[in-house]
Structure formats: structure tokens, C-alpha cells
Amino acid sequence: GEGQMLACAKHWDKLCRSAAEYGVQPCRTAEEVVRESDVVIVAVKPYLIEEVLTPLRPLLGEKAVVSVAAGWLCGRFEALLPGARHVSIMPNTPVRVCEGVILMEDAHTLDESQAAQVRRLLSALGLVETVEGRLMGIGGAISGCGPAFAAMFIEALGDAGVRHGLPRAAAYRLAAQMLAGTG
């Protein structure tokens, strides 16, 4: 619900605009977010993970840390955050319309109730698929790159429809619904 999500970001003004748009409470520091949260979603570039999480280590305790950083799987987090509760996920862009795919690494250190809570939260965004860490790459290639190919396919079908007299909006609706239904 509104006010239940907190966020911090590098640029305060941009964060405040986004927070207002999405009903999220802006925080000036990551420490503030962690202190007030049960589930901490780490959505920074992979090269920033150590820089961002190392100072937060003492605050993490029993909190569930959910990372979207590519290349950071369970073993790597264990080395950085020994004893912390963490899981690695890989969402695709259609999560924005709650029809996405979220890959969830099978190896994690969450307890049973945290794993269920994270799965529940992510399920609102689409299909949550648990995969072995070694398969996160290929799973990400299919679900992460696939939408771009699907969009090109829809556009090509739309172009064909327009060429043969359909209005573009109708051609796109037909192609998009055909693809959704086929899926």
C-alpha cells in the first residue's frame, strides 16, 4: 500500500518526483531505508554492490535482501555478506505492466517465511520462476531480451497490416493480443 515502500537514490530531486508518482516514501540515505524495512531491494549497477552494501552490513540483521544485480548470485553475496539473508532475482521489462518474468535463484539464504513473502511481492509483477544459478544467464537471455524481439515482431506484423489497409493502432492491437494469447 501507499507509504509502505521506501526508496533512496543518488539524485534527491529525481527521487522525490518518482516517489510522488508511485506513492513511495523518499529517504535521503540507504541506512534509513534499511532501518525501516523488512525487505530491502538492491537495484544498483553490479559494480556498485560492494560500495553500497558494505556500509549497510551491520544494519541488515535478519532482513531479506533482494538483489537485481546481474552476475551477483548466492555464493558471491555469501562472501560479501556472510550470515545475511539474501536472494538474487532477474526481472524483465514487462514487470512494469505486471506481466513480467522474474527469475529467482534457487540458492538463497532467506528463511521459509521470507522466501514466501518475497515470492508473494514479486508475483504481483508477473511469473516468478525459480532456477538454478547456472541457468540465470540463459533464463535472462530468453525473458530479458525476448521482449525486444517480440516488439519487433509486433511492429513487423503491424506494418504488414497497415500496408494492407488496417489502421496502425488496430494492427498493433491485433498483433499484440495474438502474441499475448499465444503465450
Structure, described:
There is one protein chain. This protein is α/β, with parallel strands linked by helices and 183 residues long. The chain is built from eight helices and seven strands, in the order E-H-E-H-E-H-H-E-H-E-E-H-E-H-H. It has helices spanning 12-22, 30-35, 49-53, 57-60, 74-80, 112-123, 136-163, 168-182, and strands at residues 6-7, 25-26, 39-42, 64-67, 85-91, 100-105, 126-131. The strands form two sheets. Strands 3-4-5-6-7 form a five-stranded mixed β-sheet, with helices on both faces. Helix 7 (136-163) packs antiparallel against helix 8. It is globular. The two termini are 30 Å apart. The model has no long low-confidence stretch (mean pLDDT 95).
Count of helical regions? 8
Measure the end-to-end span: 30 Å
Biggest sheet: strand arrangement: 3-4-5-6-7
Helix content: 40-55%
> Which sequence of SSEs, written as H and E, runs from N to C?
EHEHEHHEHEEHEHH
Task: Output the structural class.
Answer: alpha/beta
The low-confidence runs, each spanning 5 or more residues with pLDDT under 50, are: none
Number of strands: 7
The portion of residues forming beta strands comes to 15-25%
Evaluate the radius of gyration: 19 Å
What do the pLDDT scores average to?
A: 95
Can I get a quick summary?
By secondary structure, the protein is α/β, with parallel strands linked by helices.
Task: Detail the topology: elements first, then pairings.
Elements: E1 6-7, H1 12-22, E2 25-26, H2 30-35, E3 39-42, H3 49-53, H4 57-60, E4 64-67, H5 74-80, E5 85-91, E6 100-105, H6 112-123, E7 126-131, H7 136-163, H8 168-182
Parallel strand pairs: 1-2, 3-4, 4-5, 6-7
Antiparallel strand pairs: 5-6
